[in-house]
Amino acid sequence: MVYLERWKIILILAVCAIGVLYSAPNLMGKNTVEWLQAHTPGFFPNQTVNLGLDLRGGSHLLLEVATDNVIDEHMQALVDQTRTALRAGKINYDDLGLVNGAVHFKLTKPEQADAAKAAITDMDNSLDIAVQGGDFTLRMTDAKITERKRAAMDQSIEIVRRRIDETGTREPSIQRQGDNRILVQLPGLGDPEHIKNLLGQTAKLTFRLVDETASTAGGGVPPGEETLPSTDEGGRSYVVQKRVMVSGDTLVDAQPSFRDGQPVVTFKFDSIGGRRFGEATRTNTGHLFAIVLDNKIISAPVIREPILGGSGEISGHFTTQSAQDLALLLRAGALPAPIKILEERTVGPGLGADSIKAGATASLIGLALVVVFFVFAYGLFGIFANIALMFNIALIFAVLSILQATLTLPGIAGIVLTIGTALDANVLVFERIREEMRNGRSVISSIDSGYSRALSAIVDANMTTLIAAILLFIFGSGPVKGFAVTLSIGIITSIFSAIMITRLIVVWWMRATKPTQIPL
User: Fold this and answer.
1) What fold characterizes domain 6-56+349-513?
2) Percent of the chain having pLDDT more than 90?
3) Integer CA distances (angstroms), 471 to 210, 305, 419, 477, 485, in order
4) Can you give the three-state secondary structure of 408-472, one letter per residue?
5) Mean pLDDT score across all residues of the chain
6) pLDDT reported for residue 391
7) Which residues are within 8 A (CB) of 220 and not within 5 positions of it... i.e. 6 or more apart?
8) Is the pLDDT of residue 142 over 80?
9) pLDDT tens digit string along 431-462?
10) Rounded to 10 degrees, what is the CA torsion of 251, 257, 258, 262?
């Protein structure tokens, strides 16, 4: 154990050098780090540890996804699908609509019940179909409802992440909470109003035909149609078909632009959407084509000619900022359900600075006490252990910087705890060496035995703590995760520094001095 092969020495020195280099940017000024990031390649040590919301300040938003709306929309769409299926099967029906969250209709010819059930099963075989005489009731199964709500949450989290990323906000934290809530933390963001506006819009874009023969003044609208308001200055409403000719789901790009000095949004479909858009404009040339965003008509231009290129533009009463926001929303995609902001908090940068100062003070005091105690308790070997501790701290910040992990106040607590316990392994080794010396062994034999016999105890003790930290990371959330991350990294680097770095220093000392006694 006293002898170290050349490749081990090179490996230890390389790890230490990497630790120092990659932790160094955290001691540099902001301008220096930005210069390094702009003028050096990505693998170069030019990253710093990201500070969390409690250290850097920023915005905290708790969002609630209206997953029940997803089920309601699906059931409403199911009404139209049922109507189409029954008409295709030439089945006579009446009173088709939603009743208490279920699709209900009555057959005018009860003898067609089997044919109606077969048509509905072909349309969707996952429905729960209840038949009583000629009355049909169609419901979603509980498993299907749960699946759709879970999918809506997954999609909502992804869309929220895209929208925030599009704004250039760095290091956002986006986490699911419970069945229908999303926790969003945005470090460094002082004004959350813009983000709130972006997240508050569903951004569901559809293209529908306008019924130019229907009137919005009094009376009902024909089946399969609805009246929607427009965003123009006159506040005019249009009667449009519920049937969606082209959906925004097929968009692949949207960018703000200008046309005749006015802000517009240009868009481009994928191959499927482009084909549908071209067919819709070709067969309806000369008619009004409504561009609908979140059930409001942005514009309803006349189709002058077929648009076959798979691209187009949206014009309206846009400002430059609103055109940029709409393009961002369309690129990120539509939310499957509306989002409601339940809680909002803003953490000032002053509070974060105070937390950093308090954490740094605690760390320095703890470090100083540990250093003094070890020098007092173990003399020269205590100095060796303290040198390894400095490299240990550098390795912790290097790993945090490389992983671009977010450091929070509980994370600082994890580092302080690591500093306090990092030398435990050295205590085991040094006490074992003392015991061997008392038993009359030689210097080399005592040191060799101290490292070899203490190794299993060191690994066992740290592995149990590491398992606990990993479980905290897996099952914890928010501050608990921050504590678990720094604690886990600290445990691994502490084992390396105690077993490898301290041992290398001891080996070099023995080769240089050839001691006859161990100063312990």
Assistant:
1) Multidrug efflux transporter AcrB transmembrane fold (1.20.1640)
2) 3
3) 57, 62, 21, 11, 11
4) CHHHHHHHHHHHHHCCHHHHHHHHHHHHHHHCCCCHHHHHHHHHHHHHHHHHHHHHHHHHHHHHH
5) 83
6) 92
7) none
8) yes
9) 888 888 888 888 788 888 878 777 788 888 88
10) 70
Q: Return the pLDDT at 16.
A: 92
Task: Express the helix, strand and coil content of the chain in percent, nearest 5 each.
Answer: 55, 20, 25
Helix extents (H) in 99-214: 113-123, 142-166, 193-199
**pLDDT per residue as tens digits for the range 364-376:** 887 888 888 888 8
Mean pLDDT of 171-179: 80
Coil, strand or helix at 69: helix
In whole angstroms, give the CA distance from residue 296 to residue 235.
11
Q: Which CATH architecture has domain 200-344?
A: 2-Layer Sandwich (3.30)
- Gap between the Cα atoms of 520 and 463, Å rounded: 28
Span 154-174, pLDDT tens digits: 888 888 888 888 776 666 778
Is the CATH number of domain 67-145 3.40.50? Answer: no
Instruction: Give the dihedral of Cα atoms 319, 325, 331, 332; nearest 10 deg.
Output: -160
Domain positions in the chain are 6-56+349-513, 67-145, 200-344
Backbone angles phi, psi at 232, to 5 degrees: -75, 170
Residues, the chain: 520
Instruction: Retrieve residue 304's tokens.
Output: 């002058």
- For tokens 């609103």, the residue is 322
Amino acid in the structure at residue 403: L
Say whether pLDDT at 73 is over 60: yes
> Quick one: tokens of 232?
């123009």
**Nearest Cα to Cα of residue 494 among 19, 69, 172, 22:** 19
Do residues 264 and 257 make contact, with C-beta atoms less than 8 angstroms apart?
yes
CA atoms within a 13 Å half-sphere pointing along the CA-CB vector of 12: 21
Return d(Cα 520, Cα 506) in angstroms, integer.
12
C-alpha–C-alpha distance, residues 360 and 15, integer Å: 25
Per-residue pLDDT averaged across 285-312, rounded? 84
- What average pLDDT does this structure show over 14-34? 87
Rg (the chain; Cα; Å): 34
Q: Can you tell me whether residue 308 is helix, strand or coil?
A: coil
CB 489 within 8 A of CB 400: yes
Q: What is the mean pLDDT of residues 127-150?
A: 87
Which range, 29-38, 45-54, 393-402, has the best average confidence (pLDDT)? Answer: 393-402
Asked whether the domain spanning 200-344 has the same topology as the one spanning 67-145, the reply is: no
Does the pLDDT of residue 1 top 60, yes or no?
A: no
